[in-house]
């Protein structure tokens, strides 16, 4: 488990480092086209080769990481920021009309995957990274609401929560002071997992043209543009695919490792 956690942390830090470095430097300008140098294989000048427009793939991946991670991070923030309070509210009023309305609303959102939500949004407002964030964020709200409610319900039956109620604390105060801190570790782990799924969702939306639009680089759109050239220049498709796979794998391993470290029931497991 320690090896998996270390590997996940290393892969996640590598993706984050590439994102931060791309804010100030990339080997080449990703907006500069060089048709004369198109589809070059990896070389000392272009570490990962060039694409069909002659753009440096390493630079495109670095800039694409900025897009993918930013979209996923903001979308998960939206999901957590709205879903966690809703889950706490439903758990604090379990069995009531409030609980029923919150959970049935979550079921309704679950009926529409992020891709369908994105199609609905872009049909009205047009494709963009912002609309991709909204679509992924909306889909994450019921995920965190359900997860929070499940964790909170298991705590509402404990003696110290009952003692807080007897002491005169209201349900909102108990949720904020006692419930939320005790499920924070679970939310951190779930947030890491949803972050990895957010990167996949962003790549999928960009692949079908509903995410970030040119000239903003995106791993998903790089794959979409490379699919017709995979047989003559496979590196154009291989490297964006590897970037997505390794980043998602790293975040999932990191999430599993955090779960083992933060959950007291698993901390000392063999």
Bulk shape: elongated
The top-level CATH class is Mainly Alpha
Distance between the termini: 10 Å
Structural class: mainly alpha
Report a brief summary of the structure.
This protein is mainly alpha-helical and 270 residues long.
What does this structure look like?
With 270 residues, the chain is an all-alpha fold. The protein has a single domain (2-267), classed as MetI-like fold (Orthogonal Bundle). The chain contains 10 helices and no strands. The protein has helices at 2-22, 57-92, 97-110, 114-125, 129-156, 159-166, 171-207, 219-226, 235-262, 264-267. Helix 3 (97-110) runs antiparallel to helix 5 (129-156), helix 5 runs antiparallel to helix 7 (171-207) and helix 8 runs antiparallel to helix 9 (235-262). The radius of gyration is 22 Å and the shape is elongated. It starts with a helix and ends with a helix. The model has no long low-confidence stretch (mean pLDDT 91).
Spell out the blueprint of helices and strands.
Blueprint: H1 2-22, H2 57-92, H3 97-110, H4 114-125, H5 129-156, H6 159-166, H7 171-207, H8 219-226, H9 235-262, H10 264-267
Helix pairs in contact: 1-2, 1-9, 2-3, 2-5, 2-7, 3-5, 4-5, 5-7, 7-8, 7-9, 8-9
Key words describing this protein structure:
elongated, mainly alpha, 270 residues, MetI-like fold, single chain
